[in-house]
Amino acid sequence: MQINVKRIEKSEWVSLSRDAHVSVFKEEWEAEKERVDFALLTTDSEDQLIQYATLRELDSESVYIQYGGSFPTYRGSIPAYRSFQAILRWLGERYPNVTFLTENTNLAMLKFAIREGFIIVGLRATKKSIMLELYKTKGE
């Protein structure tokens, strides 16, 4: 299966973000809360949406994956797995340093991230969960 990665500029993402967030997370979201510089959408060979990720550039060499997830049709599937790999590849070609957070109970994501070369560099405790900060650099 061919996976395409498309960059969506912030101005275009604002109009898409609410629907994407509701579809993936099944909760309302206010685009104004997002502090993103751009988003990435992945599609299959028939142009069906697989995943999205919102990104924040920390500096010219570092990017933070803020939110993202698979759309319902692909949730938990091999294409979703490969789609996130494609997003990480796309980011790795442009930024030496990539960071994101995931819940400590999300074992599938933790295993995936470790296989992809990420290391745990910190944690954040919130009222709802414990978030692990994952980091990858081209130098490691």
Summarize the structure.
This protein has 140 residues and is an alpha+beta fold.
Helix-strand layout with pairing:
Elements: E1 4-9, H1 10-25, E2 38-43, E3 49-59, E4 62-70, H2 78-94, E5 97-103, H3 107-115, E6 119-125, E7 130-137
Parallel strand pairs: 4-5
Antiparallel strand pairs: 1-2, 2-3, 3-4, 5-7, 6-7
Give the strand order, joined by hyphens, for the main sheet: 1-2-3-4-5-7-6
Compute the separation of the termini in Å.
30 Å
Number of helices: 3
- How would you describe the shape? globular
In helices, the fraction of residues equals: 25-40%
Query: Using only CA atoms, what is the Rg?
Result: 14 Å
User: What class would the helix/strand composition place it in?
Assistant: alpha+beta
The ordered string of helix (H) and strand (E) elements is EHEEEHEHEE
| Overall pLDDT confidence | 87
Number of strands: 7
Sheet with most strands: 7 strands, mixed
* Uncertain regions spanning at least 5 consecutive residues: none
